[in-house]
Specification:
Catalytic activity: ATP + protein L-histidine = ADP + protein N-phospho-L-histidine
Largest sheet: 5 strands, mixed
Number of helices: 12
GO molecular function: ATP binding; phosphorelay sensor kinase activity; protein dimerization activity
Pfam families: HATPase_c, HisKA_3, Sensor
Number of strands: 5
GO cellular component, one term: membrane
Strand order of the largest sheet: 1-2-3-5-4
Shape: elongated
Keywords: ATP-binding, Kinase, Membrane, Nucleotide-binding, Phosphoprotein, Transferase, Transmembrane, Transmembrane helix, Two-component regulatory system
Length: about 425
């Protein structure tokens, strides 16, 4: 949520502005920061114009409508860039919106996508014009001064307003024009650099109703995380108590029997020792399985990309893995993503009847995206006790989301998104 600086009323004066003189270093530094902010917006403003035209073409022409989600994701990347730029300029934090929906119909009705479009429309017009004003102020001043001084040596010289400079009176007009450009920067750029980022922040930040809803979701996921943690502890305790502890008791019992046999009949002790040895081996295997269920060692040894490639290599259905550049991810995120891929490939092998599967891993917009898709019969459903439900609880505890799209006839797509940035 943006701080109050993003929601401040127009015309509010900062304390520093009230005590700084026009020539103080702090005020000059802020003006230079504002100038740079507006100039940097020129490139993203042009990109916003292009994205809006592409999105409009997708909607109007209908045929390229399936490309609309891609255009929306590109727009989300651009707004994420602007969100970060505005947040750094204002010194606030602007929350990231939820992921872009996967279908064109959902994109058209998604409130976050509409906010992106509203901001890009504003940025394409106001952001571009503000950048032009910031750039033209120093350039226009310098250009007109040079023309006023050197017009006898520049045939056909014209000012930035396309007026000729062929006499000293006309050169004087060029100097006045240069003074106007020079005054344009200090008079216009500072107010623009204060007003425009605040308006942009208000558009990019979620509405208060969504923030309240988000708070309720965070509270629910926190409760779910605590429940999942308690369930996991009970499972580990049950595995240790019912499995490993029983086997270790059996080892102790057999060793006691072997000790007594050694005193009475040493030859009869060997089979008992062998039985104890087998029980100890099985207990060790069970212990390793419990450890792997807590955090797969392959993640620590090889990383998420290689671990998922290993899952795909051992899949019963031929599987291709597409992995983008993955940064260093938190252990909990890696474990949840690995579990999601494992569950997805298990469901593909057991229920889908698919001939091939695909796994995609990438980080985009501050989120890890995991997709497991297949060309099977579709019709997959999430029930209360299914593996997908367990993955959902685990992912939502990390503030992530799970989407299962499986119409009858296929294809089936399991999409998991997990935040990887604060």
């Amino acid at each position: 949520m943006p701080c109050s600086a993003a929601d401040g009323a127009p015309g509010t004066v900062d304390k520093d502005d009230a005590v700084d003189t026009p020539s103080s270093p702090g005020r000059i530094q802020r003006q230079l920061r504002g100038f740079r902010f507006l100039v940097d917006g020129l490139a993203t403003g042009a990109a916003a114009c292009l994205l809006l035209l592409v999105s409009l073409a997708c909607v109007v022409l209908v045929l390229p409508l399936p490309l609309l989600p891609r255009a929306a994701r590109a727009a989300r990347s651009l707004t994420a860039l602007e969100r970060g730029r505005i947040a750094r300029h204002l010194g606030v934090r602007i929350p990231q919106p939820p992921p872009v929906p996967a279908t064109a119909r959902a994109v058209l009705t998604d409130p976050a996508v509409r906010r992106d479009a509203a901001f890009l429309l504003l940025h394409a017009v106001v952001g571009t014009l503000s950048g032009v004003v910031a750039v033209s102020s120093p350039i226009g001043a310098v250009q007109n001064v040079v023309l006023a001084l050197l017009w006898p040596f520049i045939p056909g010289a014209e000012t930035t307003l396309a007026t000729p400079v062929q006499s000293w009176p006309q050169a004087g007009f060029a100097l006045l024009l240069a003074a106007g450009y020079a005054a344009l920067g200090p008079l216009v750029v500072p107010p623009l650099s204060r007003w425009y980022p605040r308006v942009g922040a208000s558009l990019l930040a979620p509405p208060r109703t969504l923030l309240v809803q988000r708070l309720a979701e965070v509270t629910a996921t926190r409760s779910a995380a605590l429940d999942a943690h308690a369930t996991e502890l009970r499972r580990i305790e049950r595995d240790l108590h019912d499995g490993i502890q029983n086997r270790m008791v059996a080892v102790v019992v057999h060793l006691g029997m072997a000790e007594r046999a050694l005193r009475r009949d040493p030859a009869a002790a060997l089979p008992i020792v062998q039985t104890a040895h087998a029980a100890a081996d099985q207990a060790l295997a069970d212990l390793r399985a419990v450890v792997r269920s807590i955090y797969p060692p392959v993640l620590a040894d090889r990383g998420l990309a290689q671990a998922v490639s290993g899952l795909a290599a051992h899949s019963a259905v031929p599987c291709a893995v597409q992995t983008g550049a993955l940064p260093l991810l938190p252990a909990a995120v890696q474990a949840a993503a690995y579990a999601a891929v494992a569950e997805g490939l298990t469901n593909v092998a057991r229920h889908s009847g698919a001939r091939r599967a695909d796994v995609r891993l990438e980080v985009t917009g501050g989120r890890l995206v995991v997709e497991v898709s297949d060309d099977g019969a579709g019709g997959a459903r999430e029930t209360g006790g299914s593996g997908v439900s367990g993955i959902r609880r685990r992912v939502e505890a990390l503030d992530g989301a799970v989407h299962l799209h499986s119409p009858p006839g296929g294809p089936t797509v399991l999409r998991v998104t997990i935040p990887v940035e604060g």
